[in-house]
């Protein structure tokens, strides 16, 4: 029997005291123990990007990290984007530019884009397309996602 570990995670500015097996992924812990279900699980192998979140401001695949590795870091999930009922510019742009269809991949794209644009606010064109190509979408054809992120980038630079 594996010993459970008590850890505290800082997610979207809130502390969560959780008891987890050392092998439990961060994605599962966020969804099951923190009850934040916006982070989606797709391939669970780090390929699709559906589970992308920010860890200390950088986009990461939460299915590839163990929760016990993340004590003492700042974690941001899609639930942390909107503030006091006001959508983040990325969320507004995805809505306005029809950057989603079924919506399954959307949280991962939002978090990937947020991290990338915060690291490089001037990211556009081919460079932006290359960053976004690391996440998969089965519905949209990507053009509306790219248009949404480009529109949000302009708003975020203001």
In words, what does this structure look like?
The chain is an alpha+beta fold and 158 residues long. The protein has two domains: 76 residues, Ubiquitin-like (UB roll) (Roll); 69 residues, Orthogonal Bundle (DNA polymerase, domain 1), CATH 1.10.150.120. The chain has five helices and five strands, in the order ββαβββαααα. It has a five-stranded mixed β-sheet, with helices on both faces. α2 packs antiparallel against α5 and α3 crosses α5. The mean pLDDT is 95.
Features:
single chain; 158 residues; alpha+beta; Ubiquitin-like (UB roll); DNA polymerase, domain 1; 2 domains; 5-stranded mixed sheet; 5 strands; 16% strand; globular
What does the overall shape look like?
globular
Helices and strands, in N-to-C order?
EEHEEEHHHH
CATH topology of the largest domain: Ubiquitin-like (UB roll)
Number of helices: 5
> What is the total number of structural domains?
2
- Examine the secondary-structure arrangement and name the CATH architecture of the largest domain: Roll
Low-confidence stretches: none
Mean pLDDT: 95
Helix content: 25-40%
Radius of gyration: 16 Å
Total strands: the figure is 5
| Strand portion | 15-25%
CATH class label of the largest domain: Alpha Beta
